[in-house]
Amino acid sequence: MGLVRFKKFISEGGAPLWVRFSVGAIVLRLNNLRAQLEAEDDEKKRDIILGKMNALVGMISGLGIAVGGSDAVLLKKIKGIIGGKK
Length: 86
Prior knowledge:
It contains four helices and no strands. It has a domain of 48 residues. Helix 2 runs antiparallel to helix 3 and helix 3 packs antiparallel against helix 4.
């Protein structure tokens, strides 16, 4: 499966709307961090950026597990971390 356009991703009904928008926002942030990483020469700053990227990828993985496994408790915890309404 290749990349899906954001509009198609949002219109698909596999996950709650807040999850789909959160993933979209996280992907945008990851793209921003990738650009910062490519432009950075300092190794310490690169490591900090990589740590931020890993945390965001972890959130996407957690959302995938919670939605795929229908784990309501995990979904509520992640929703609280991301800043969605309860």
